[in-house]
Here is the input.
Amino acid sequence: MKRMLSGIKPSGQLTLGNYIGALREFVKYQNDYEMIVFIANLHTLTVYQDPQELSTNLRDTIALYLACGLDPKRSTIFMQSDVMQHAQLGFILSCNTYMGELNRMTQYKDKLAKGEESMTSGFYVYPTLMAADILIYDPAFVPVGEDQKQHVELTRDVAIRFNNRYGETFKIPQPLIPKVGARVMSLSDPTKKMSKSDALDKGCIYLLDTPEAARKKVMSAVTDTLGKIAFDPVNQPGIANLLQIHSALSGRSIEDLVREFDGQGYGTFKKAVAEEVVNLLNTLQARYRDIMDQGILDQVLSEGAAKARIMAEAKLQDVQRKIGLTIDATQ
Ligand code: AMP
Ligand code: TRP
Here is the structure.
């Protein structure tokens, strides 16, 4: 079975977009890949986090992943900071990455262009920590959103450079970008992605929203004045987004939904979408509460970290020996 790795940055509460675009996919991948999934908590520190809030987000993120069906028996699930080898390899890789390469990262360039004044040096070098997160496990595939593709490409460049300098060490990973259409848009501005980093607003459904709050958000989703249910993302982005959400959750095709709802008015259609969303939240939240009641998070994370540490330590030892950090007693 090929290995797949992904990291989730737990900055903020998980959203319906995360569920449809990522969580659900990971759960499916478990059937075909050996999955390594970690909570990238070190990465959140690149911008200031309130400690209490961060800790709550970490707990909720991992519990929701389990609630969605990520299975600790089949997959390796752990917290990045519990496997210290990531940070150690991260430093080594930052010494094999040029500043010119980091200067080209669009996330960095965007912040620079916006005149961001409090950019941390951790933010600047974080692509090299991400490279370490990946390369330390030799995965074949790394599923990421479009915005992270550049970082996986940098990871490949750094791995190739390292292999050339020091001999074959790292497997070169492939980014896996979800197909178009897997993008859930904001309910209040359907031209923007639904995002957890946005300030709390009615355009974003959080997986831990009360079902009633979520229902209200769907019912007040921005649509248009055309008054027809059709899949036209350019002229009717709001309706197209709601169709996609319904289709993703109900498993029915968009054509099928258009056939059923055309002519019925936006109110009726929104009610049906809200019903799908509420059903999902009810199911997820019941499992989430179960997981919390059982108090299994600590155990899942410590078992996951123990498994990950064995793989990470072996790779780190190999790297340290190859670059000459260790004493070779046989010489
Ligand atoms: P983020 O919340 O931006 O850190 O993204 C975490 C993961 O969720 C990535 O794999 C994203 O591609 C996915 N994701 C986040 N927001 C959405 C969205 N609105 N629609 C689809 N996928 C999303
Ligand atoms: N940087 C990613 C993000 O912001 C999260 C992440 C950290 C990651 N390490 C990773 C993703 C390794 C994939 C592989 O979303």
Summary: The chain has 13 helices and five strands. The first strand starts at residue 3 and ends at 8.
